[in-house]
Amino acid sequence: MTRILVLDGHPEFGSFCGSLASAYADEAEARGHEVRLRHLSKMAFDPDLGTSSFAKTPPLEPDLEAIWQDIVWCQHMVVAHPLWWGGHPAKLKGLFDRVLLPGKAFQYVKGKALPDKLLAGRTSQVLVTSDTPNWFYRLVYGSGSRKQTEKQILGFCGLKPKGYHMFSQIKGSTDEGRAKMIERAAGLGRKAA
Prior knowledge:
Blueprint: E1 3-8, H1 16-30, E2 34-39, H2 62-73, E3 76-82, H3 90-99, E4 106-107, E5 116-117, E6 122-130, H4 134-139, H5 144-157, E7 159-168, H6 175-190
Parallel strand pairs: 1-2, 1-3, 3-6, 6-7
Antiparallel strand pairs: 4-5
């Protein structure tokens, strides 16, 4: 079985993202996977790296150290987050900035154009809630956040993408529509890693 980290990346506890993350985690756990579900909203840390030099990176607060240990522990990482202004909520982006550091998540090597991926061997999935229709996100916006998340954040560190799943439209959705979205997230958990 697989060790799975599910990160509810919404800054408010009890969000619909949290429901998707919980549905995924519950189903994966029911299939025998070892699952850790973490909520960004319950973490206390300064999301601002506060420096342009990695040599001056501040020490990780306890909640960041704990999520880092979860990332090291996991074989598969799932991030559920809302699409805000075409990207991640600031606190989630701050978590990435603070935790995915050189020497830990990746390593620059003299003479190589791209760094070594220190989290290689792990996979990732992303669940995204959005008020933007899927087709508009792809055709008009060019799936910008997807490219950033899969290639420039998770993939950059070695977490191989296994799916980027849009859940939209949230605004104006019915209870029945949201129930179907939660079942879809649960289905992904049933097929986990």
